[in-house]
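Input (structure):
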């Protein structure tokens, strides 16, 4: 298990585990392997990990949600937010690893989302304020729930 904020990791470890890593290409990774040094930029820096877009899911009935439904929600959000960092609010307080995976994977498919925050659930987002670095999470990506059927 990587140490939060200390071990360079890729994929969704940034969000789910609080690890630090960029989506670097092969050339950068070769240089890191040869030199033993990692350039300090992107998701390695605190200031670049703040939530930028609020995704309010408080209107959704998650009692009937399947992993595929979580995936559909995340795919749509990735498409809307592009390369910004979404902060989800209103999700269940306890989620399974499969549900977290179902949210994490599609964000990178439909958008270039470097990481995400789940307010009250992920390590860097115990609160909405913490997820957005003490400020507000910028523009809203949408409020979900009234048109939940559109996600299916």
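Output (sequence):
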């Amino acid at each position: 298990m990587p140490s939060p904020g200390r071990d360079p990791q890729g994929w969704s470890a940034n969000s789910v585990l609080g690890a630090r890593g960029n989506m670097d290409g092969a050339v950068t990774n070769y240089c890191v392997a040869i030199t033993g040094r990692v350039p300090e930029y992107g998701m390695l820096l605190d200031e670049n990990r703040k939530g930028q877009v609020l995704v309010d899911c408080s209107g959704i009935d998650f009692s009937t949600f399947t992993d595929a439904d979580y995936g559909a929600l995340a795919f749509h959000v990735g498409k809307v937010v592009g390369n910004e960092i979404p902060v989800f609010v209103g999700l269940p307080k306890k989620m399974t690893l499969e549900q977290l995976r179902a949210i994490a994977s599609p964000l990178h498919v439909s958008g270039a989302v470097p990481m995400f925050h789940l307010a009250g659930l992920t390590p860097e987002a115990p609160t909405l304020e913490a997820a957005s670095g003490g400020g507000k999470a910028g523009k809203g990506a949408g409020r979900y729930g009234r048109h939940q059927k559109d996600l299916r």
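Notes: Strands lie at 53-56, 86-89, 117-118, 140-143. Residues 46-151 form one domain.
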